[in-house]
Design brief:
heterodimer; A: 196 residues; 6-stranded mixed beta sheet; 3-stranded antiparallel beta sheet; 5 helices; 23% strand; B: 242 residues; 66% helix; 0% strand
């Protein structure tokens, strides 16, 4: 049966998420069944994501150097600023600690690319104030999910022996914690390797 | 197109205009200027605006051409073909986009440029570009495997099914999977297709379908796979192995 394939404008809008209402519904329905259009969306989304910009290396380098200079000045001046500011004198550490925690989860172990024995593979992270349970996911370098577990009540998790990881291959792990209000906290994705 | 297969544009191609530092010298609103120049019908103004538009997007178009063609000559021919087609029929494509811009111009140029490259490939080689053939993609299809639980090697059946019996079992499995997929919503079906048929990363899918993070994609995919497993079990399919 002849299908009405998506136009170039529709595919571009779908990739940019600017296709709205019934147009997006139609696109989603069509893409669910049309390999050709889905193939095009996948290829073009990757191309668009990797497309070069007009900003070139020398310009980027200048921006990086500028930011580094600002950072350096901030680090040098911070002790002076703290000493002079009201917050600097007699700081209330307890009050500081009771401030709302960031919604970011910090991974502790394993750290980036440190090879570890399989028997010692225990994931550890710093907890999130608004979370009652955590989810942990392990993916390979292609983004394929190797292992996922939900409802972890602790901030540490030992990987079951049944989960097979190839020695020396780089994997990634991250933790996610959904909150009751619908928001969520997450960690960055950290690489690790199992020692041969 | 010449006898040796090289594409020759009908007008002088504006070469990429790049400064010593590599910064493209172009007006920021080059498409608007070009469309305005088209309406003004002033040839000198039009050429200047066209050069500006090309200069702004040359790197992007070369990037698209390189995704389809491998050699430098092929890439440059495809680039020339894209520009030729963008100016064809009094710049019909650009006019239509400018009249109803639904996306960023760069994304639109990626889609249109890639389509033109594939068209150019067909004209030059008389066949479709192999990189996106369905056969190749079908070979990569792993959804059936992923729905199955991990199976140990020693659990594989001692006697292997052959020929028609194996084919029948595979067809039965595929049909059962299609029925199970029909039961999920269109958005979820697209999510699964993008993940397993097209092998997009969770990050890419999150961007396309509006998930807040890749992790939310993983969660949704896992929930859907569990649902598909239950559906297959209800149809009497216990294993993905034929």
């Amino acid at each position: 049966m002849e299908q009405n394939h998506l136009s170039a404008a529709e595919i571009a809008a779908f990739i940019d998420q600017t296709l709205e209402g019934e147009f997006r519904v139609r696109a989603v329905e069509h893409l669910g069944t049309c390999e050709r259009c889905r193939d095009e969306v996948a290829a073009c989304a990757r191309l668009a994501a990797s497309a070069p910009t007009a900003v070139t290396r020398p310009v980027i380098w200048r921006v990086v150097m500028g930011l580094a200079a600002v950072l350096l000045v901030a680090v040098v001046l911070r002790p002076i600023w703290l000493a002079r500011s009201p917050m600097g004198r007699g700081r209330n550490v307890t009050a500081e600690r009771s401030a709302p925690m960031t919604s970011r989860i910090t991974t502790v172990f394993p750290a980036d690319s440190v090879p570890i024995a399989r028997s010692q593979l225990r994931f550890v992270w710093k907890g999130d104030a608004g979370a009652s349970a955590y989810s942990l996911a392990i993916t390979d370098a292609n983004g394929k999910t190797v292992y996922v577990i939900d409802e972890i009540s602790d901030t540490t998790f030992a990987l079951p022996d049944t989960v097979r990881l190839t020695p020396s291959v780089v994997y990634f792990w991250h933790v996610d914690a959904p909150h009751a209000d619908g928001s969520s906290a997450g960690s960055s994705s950290v690489s690790f390797r199992v020692a041969p | 197109m010449t006898l040796d297969g090289h594409f020759e544009p009908r007008y002088a191609l504006p070469l990429p205009r790049v400064t010593d530092e590599g910064t493209v010298t172009e007006p920021s609103r080059s498409l608007d200027r070009f469309i305005t120049a088209l309406a003004a019908d002033d040839p000198s103004q039009l050429e200047a605006a066209w050069h500006g538009f090309v200069a702004e997007h040359t790197r992007l178009l070369l990037h698209v051409a390189r995704s389809v063609f491998k050699t430098h000559d092929e890439v440059m021919d495809a680039y020339a073909y894209i520009l030729e087609q963008l100016r064809a029929s009094d710049c019909r494509r650009l006019r239509e986009f400018a009249a109803d811009p639904r996306s960023r111009v760069s994304t639109w140029l990626v889609v249109v440029g890639r389509r033109l490259c594939l068209d150019f490939y067909r004209r030059r080689y008389g066949r479709d570009h192999g990189g996106t053939s369905r056969d190749q993609r079908a070979m990569r299809r792993r959804l059936q495997d992923l729905i199955a639980e991990d199976v140990e090697v020693h659990e594989l059946p001692a006697t292997r099914m052959v020929g028609a019996e194996l084919l029948m079992r595979q067809t039965e499995l595929r049909n059962a999977l299609e029925r199970a997929l029909d039961e999920v919503g269109v958005s979820d079906r697209l999510l699964l297709r993008l993940r397993f048929d097209d092998e997009l990363s969770a990050q890419e899918i999150a961007h396309l379908l509006g998930f807040s993070s890749a992790f939310h994609v993983y969660r949704r995919v896992n929930a859907l796979l569990a649902r598909l497993r239950r559906s297959l079990e209800a149809q009497g399919i216990e294993s993905a192995l034929p």
